[in-house]
Amino acid sequence: MIGKHLGSMLAMALLVLPVAATGQVRGGPPMGLPGGGFPGGGIGGPFGGGPPGGLPGHLPDLPVHGRPAWAGVEAVTGGLERAEQAVSIKLSKLQKDRAAGLAQQSPALYELDRNGALAIRGEVMATGLGTAALARVQQKGFAVLRRDTVPGADLDLVVVTRSGMDNDHAMKLLRKIAPEGTYAPNHVLFESGMPARADSAERSGPAEPAGGEGPVAVGLIDTGVAPVIDADPRVHVVRRTFAQGASKPGAHGTAVAALLAREKGHLSLYAADIFGSDPRGGTSELLVRALGWMSASHVPVVNVSMVGPANPIVGVVVARLIVSGLTIVAPVGNDGAAARPLYPASYPGVVAVSAAGANGRLLPEASRVRRVDFVAPGIAMVPDPGGRLTEVRGTSFAAPIVSRLIADRVRSPNTLAAQKAIRALASAAQHPKDTGAYGHGLIGF
């Protein structure tokens, strides 16, 4: 039960625990979805053989050694053309099977794109359509569902549909009607780690702050954040819901928020709920709109502890916002040895994070992909939405450790400051022998 000393209890809750013997997550899946978590899962699964995933030649990987290139203009040039190329990257069998299960379970809500990724049925995201092009699209039977401008990205986002037509056929027709536009399915994103088990024991205090002066601000795009986080007087939460319906506090978003708040010092947490109580939540469209809000709010660092397929419109928004000074941190996923690149972590310029236990060894479920920038602790004790301490594990919970370490050094959106902060973290990182799997090393231990 949460009492008046909640702030102290939250601080004590956030000790990273020893790694468990198995890569599987303990406990049943929330929300009744197969595989666990909100749409798509992303937890555990069989850890089969096969080579680690990698980016194809036309999408060059960022270096795993040498001078860090994150948060720099050189890492995100190429715009829409480069973002569209990423769509050719295939999903792992685990991701495909999870998406197929959800599409089969809710065929009126979901469909699969040509790569087997989960998307909202009948909804196509579009950008680059002027007034005349949009009029042609409407004349051919497409209805405009929503239209918005993404702040900071100079991008007009339109979501259209045509009755009785799936996404692939709709996009083919749209390209004929208005070839100047860029089109993408409204993909559904997955969490990248979930609660493991409950525990009522008290833990030791949080780590010392990393330094810096002035208020710390971090953005969080996830499920809703429970009021348990607000009980800590050091934390000020600014909430906004992007999904339809009321915001719904979730275990995942609450856990990530608690990890962002574990350091000493005051934190302004900008929490974007892209799931809410809407079964159509957690989409690429809502991710883009939430990123635009972060840019408009001048948040320097944004944590996105979710994974999904490559989406050309999300890719170009991410690129433009990184150039504008935003730092985006995301987990590589939990597909183990059979993993393929997942997004947004694999977009150029995003800080990609994998997870390890207290012994510094990678979690068995952590995706073995080429693109890793840092490895951080991936097992912790955090409060659930009701305030009960819960053990969580996965790359979702390593990403906020890195986000907070960067935010402690970067107090406003600034590309050069972000580069300097990330290079400092890389210089201070621990370097295991298997450097290719650890990027620039272990941090946050």
Write the layout of secondary structure elements.
Elements: H1 6-13, H2 79-85, H3 93-105, E1 110-112, E2 118-127, H4 131-139, E3 143-150, E4 155-161, H5 167-177, E5 182-187, E6 190-191, E7 194-198, E8 216-222, E9 235-241, H6 251-260, E10 267-273, H7 284-296, E11 301-304, E12 306-307, H8 312-323, E13 327-331, E14 351-356, E15 374-377, E16 379-383, E17 389-393, H9 399-407, H10 415-428, H11 435-438
Parallel strand pairs: 8-10, 8-11, 9-10, 11-13, 13-14, 14-15
Antiparallel strand pairs: 1-2, 2-4, 2-5, 3-4, 6-12, 7-17, 16-17
Task: Walk me through this protein's architecture.
The protein is an alpha/beta fold. The protein has two domains: 6-14 and 190-438, 3-Layer(aba) Sandwich (Rossmann fold), CATH 3.40.50.200; 93-187, Alpha-Beta Plaits (2-Layer Sandwich), CATH 3.30.70. The protein has eleven helices and 17 strands. The protein has helices at residues 6-13, 79-85, 93-105, 131-139, 167-177, 251-260, 284-296, 312-323, 399-407, 415-428, 435-438; strands at 110-112, 118-127, 143-150, 155-161, 182-187, 190-191, 194-198, 216-222, 235-241, 267-273, 301-304, 306-307, 327-331, 351-356, 374-377, 379-383, 389-393. It has a seven-stranded parallel β-sheet, with helices on both faces. Strands 1, 2, 3, 4 and 5 form a five-stranded antiparallel β-sheet that branches. Strand 16 (379-383) and strand 17 (389-393) form a beta hairpin. It is globular, with a radius of gyration of 20 Å. The two termini are 29 Å apart. The model is unreliable at 1-80 and 198-212 (pLDDT under 50).
